[in-house]
Automatic annotation (TrEMBL):
Protein name: FMN reductase (NADH) RutF
InterPro entries: Flavin_Rdtase-like_dom, NADH-dep_flavin_reductase, Split_barrel_FMN-bd
Pfam families named in the record: Flavin_Reduct
Residue ranges that the Swiss-Prot or TrEMBL entry lists as coiled coil: none
Stretches assigned to the Flavin reductase like domain: 17-168
GO terms for MF: FMN binding; riboflavin reductase (NADPH) activity
Keywords: Oxidoreductase
């Protein structure tokens, strides 16, 4: 068995996780009077009692320290047409400031935007208060208590990342291959 510290084990692990489809999110928080953000797929619900979620952020990422200072963050579930936003905020070293034009203009959120920067057009968002940070290896597991849930447009579809590329939905990605292999009847379609 290979040591977890072996570089080959890290590459194999990364390759395996590329096969796991994941919703693409923009994690946002306030920083020095502006909103800042980063793209993340390591996001999941944690508990419904109390409502909470976790995000995993590289310990060297500027957004990690901004979240700790702010004490708040937003998990913006990107809509399938927002891949350009995902690409921009996933580049190391890129400007992480979010232009005001990308933030929600919903008057119901106006009072909260300075503390919880919600992205316009997102499939949905969770406004979270940072509860705990657990450092492990290269990343921090950041636990947030859900302060508010913001629904997205009716029928919004999330952006999904699978096999190192964006796909609208996993079914949309897999159906053409399944049809070619004559598997659709076996799946009940």
């Amino acid at each position: 068995m290979r040591s977890p510290r072996d570089p080959a084990a890290r590459l194999e692990t990364r390759d395996l996780f590329s096969k796991c489809a994941a919703t693409v999110n923009l994690i946002t928080c306030p920083q020095g009077g502006v909103a800042t953000g980063m793209t993340a797929t390591s996001v999941c619900s944690l508990s419904l009692d109390p409502p909470s979620a976790l995000i995993c952020v590289n310990r060297e990422a500027r957004t990690r320290d901004a979240i700790v200072r702010a004490g708040t963050f937003v998990i913006n579930v990107l809509e399938r047409a927002q891949d350009d936003i995902a690409n921009h905020f996933s580049r190391p070293g890129s400007d992480k400031a979010i232009p005001a034009g990308l933030l929600s203009r919903d008057p119901r959120l106006a009072a909260d935007l300075a503390e919880f920067p919600v992205l316009a057009g997102a499939a949905g968002a969770l406004m979270c208060r940072l509860e705990r940070v657990v450092d492990f290896g290269s990343h921090s597991i950041m636990i947030g208590l859900v302060d508010r849930v913001v629904g997205g447009p009716a029928g919004a579809e999330p952006l999904v990342y699978h096999d190192r590329k964006y796909v609208a939905t996993l079914a949309e990605h897999l159906l053409p291959a399944a049809a070619e292999k004559g598997m659709l009847s076996a799946l009940g379609w």
